[in-house]
Specification:
Number of helices: 7
Largest sheet: 3 strands, antiparallel
């Protein structure tokens, strides 16, 4: 069966006087086109700003190149696009499609990229003591983030649902020693750690 090609272009919300278009005629190619859909989702529910509001930024504003909502948005997009490791962002900080998420096509300073690298994004990671310190100047309130997830879910419905069912999927890991909590699982035909 022959492949049916679509030559139509799809327009997305532009920024900085530029058009953002997906097309199938070659040119610059990215593997991060899903970021465009994530950007539209962020526009619809204000996700990045709302999650960023759960953080406290204690950095010196005069020295800040990448604002907190941009950092949070970049981190969420990275995870959504399969880049869980912060180290990936040393390359991703130059990605023009990801730059769309923070509406930054140009860096604030000439010695910086449009997006943050791993050292800057690392400031979002929890401080060892739970309190911002010399290198961790950004703190967060986990309970506020949890409440936001519930709010986002409830807002997705026209009426508040009478009950919410959490269907927890299991993560099974094969074991090769005598670790505590292991058991033989007949379906997988080996010893597993399967807490659920």
């Amino acid at each position: 069966m022959p492949t049916e090609c679509i030559s139509k272009q799809f327009d997305f919300e532009g920024f900085d006087g530029r058009r953002v278009v997906s097309a199938f005629d070659g040119g610059s190619i990215t593997t991060h086109a899903g970021a465009l859909l994530l950007r539209q989702t962020d526009r619809a529910i204000d996700l990045f700003r709302r999650i960023a509001s759960c953080f406290d930024d204690h950095r010196n504003p005069a020295l800040v190149v990448h604002r907190l909502p941009a950092l949070v948005g970049q981190r969420i997009a990275g995870i959504a696009l399969g880049h869980e490791d912060i180290e990936d962002h040393d390359e991703l900080r130059h990605d023009q499609v990801l730059a769309l998420l923070s509406d930054k096509s140009e860096p604030k300073r000439s010695d910086c990229a449009a997006l943050a690298g791993k050292s800057t994004l690392n400031r979002l990671e929890p401080a060892p003591s739970g309190v911002p310190g010399r290198y961790h100047r950004i703190g967060h309130d986990a309970s506020v983030i949890e409440d936001l997830f519930v709010d986002l879910h409830l807002e997705a419905h026209e009426a508040v649902p009478g009950r919410i069912i959490l269907d927890l999927g299991a993560t099974d890991d094969p074991l090769y020693g005598h670790q505590e909590g292991r058991f033989f699982h007949g379906y997988y035909n080996c010893y597993r750690y399967l807490p659920l």
